[in-house]
Amino acid sequence: MKAVAYRKSLPIDDPQSLIDVELPEPEASGRDLLVKVDAISVNPVDAKVRLRADPNGAAHVLGWDVAGTVVAVGPEVRRFKPGDAVWYAGDRSRPGGNSERHLVDERLVGRKPSTLGMAEAAAMPLTSITAWELMFERLGIPHGTQGRAATLLVVGAAGGVGSMAVQLARRLTGLTVIGTASRPETREWVKAMGAHHVVDHSKPLDAEVLAVAPEGVDYVLSLSATEQHFATFPKLLKPMGKIGLIDDPADVIDVRLLKTKSLSLHWELMFTRSAFHTDDMGEQGHILDEVANLVDAGVIRSTLRENLGPINAANLQRAHKALESGTTIGKVVLEGWS
């Protein structure tokens, strides 16, 4: 089968940073699905793994956003059958989805929204799970539009996770949602996702946020540049406020700044459940099913921004280069095989 892999950690401008390869087709066993991969998306984790985990010559396949069709199932599979259209992010400890056929544990898989094409669907799984787990599980933000008024700040709201977090917060909660963006096109995108207010994170963040939320905010999702803004968060948060992180701060962050207001810090890594085979690993499949229902009901939309064409090494290099620029809006997708 065709696949795109890397054999050595190289800068993305190197022609060998990602390569087209032929690999044996895997076979489904246990609770695995064998999926025909129709479309994929890219995420920062792809570039991080490519640069940090050198496979020493072995062909290592990346890719943790897939939309496709089940072609075979293991004997213990309960939820899916051949022919089902599915979407998922998968498991970082196994080969990724940048291959024509891919094995994935059914517990990590959801039903693809019937109203979306494969490319539109591939844009959403990893970021949907990340945003959902971060807001509703880590920070404990309540579902529903009733209850006390509260405010959420999303730093980096135009990216993949930010785009989903803004939509979920706006549609499923009663929160006032403030998103940050610094360019005209990103500000327009965040507004289209549903943010009540958009502020500029290239300016002093405390002044920007307090201008629209004078009493401060209850929750902060810091999705990028945490080291740049962390010292400002205690100035913005109300007492007992909560901060959620997903990025990898380049510098040490001083958590002592959180003590006076009894603020709390929460990490989210979407791969934790699959890495440790937690008892509730199947929650990720249920989250994707719920997001599919929301999409099909017209409550939220795909975050696809750019389709780079067929899945091959040249196009994936373009996608990784865009990710590494730090200027992508929404999600970049590849569809079909060349």
Automatic annotation (TrEMBL):
The keyword Metal-binding applies. The keyword Oxidoreductase applies. It holds the Pfam family ADH_zinc_N. GO terms for molecular function: oxidoreductase activity; zinc ion binding. InterPro entries: ADH-like_C (IPR013149), ADH-like_N (IPR013154), ADH_Zn_typ-1 (IPR014182), ER (IPR020843), GroES-like_sf (IPR011032), NAD(P)-bd_dom_sf (IPR036291), Zinc-ADH_QOR/CCCR (IPR051603). Residues 13-334 form the Enoyl reductase (ER) domain. It comes from the Bacteria. Keywords: Metal-binding, NADP, Oxidoreductase, Zinc. SMART domains: PKS_ER. Belongs to the zinc-containing alcohol dehydrogenase family. Quinone oxidoreductase subfamily. NCBIfam families: adh_fam_1 (TIGR02817). This is Zinc-type alcohol dehydrogenase-like protein. It comes from Luteibacter pinisoli.
